[in-house]
Amino acid sequence: MPEALVIGASRGLGLVLARELARRDWQVIATTRDGASPEGLTTEQLEMTSPEQLAALRERLAGHRLGLLFVNAAIDRGNLPIDQVPTEMFTEVMITNALSPLRALEALRGLVVPGGTVAVMSSEQGSITRNTEDGYELYKASKAALNQLMRSYATRHAGDGHTKLLIDPGHNRTHLGGPDAPLDPGETIPMVVDVLEAHAGTPGLRFLDRHGETVPW
Q: Between β-strands 204-209 and 163-168, what pairing exists: parallel, antiparallel or unpaired?
């Protein structure tokens, strides 16, 4: 049974992802910030923005052999023009959405088997090419920073044989996406898992949507 670690599965897309993997007979470990244990999942408590907690999780999982390491974490602090964003808000969003996912990958990548996959939940909002509509400047910037840092990660670890994926799941009805979002996670996340499984064992970095199509940087 392949083993997966899903970082950020307290709710929303991460929780649906962990449950979909489990439904497909993956052995799933899911992290939650508050230590809650969603039904049917093995969980570990983790505040991803804490390097100390990441190191402790790495020690607790020593000996595990992951076929998939998936980092799902993001916050949004509203639709403010960038000149109105307080410094503290800018720092919080960038640490959560860009810095911490890459810290998680660096801390935990040693658990991933040769030929395994490391993936991060990104967004079309991080595409500079597709940034043609006004709004959500800080969130867009944080996802663009995430994508750039993932590109640097892939360059630094080009020889490790891991599949590396940035995934755009679309605009889903979650706490982050809002109740009026057009997509249902119950329909989109199985498509995301299809993409993950289809690209397993193919080294290199790709930025893909839920259909497996390339998203322009």
A: parallel
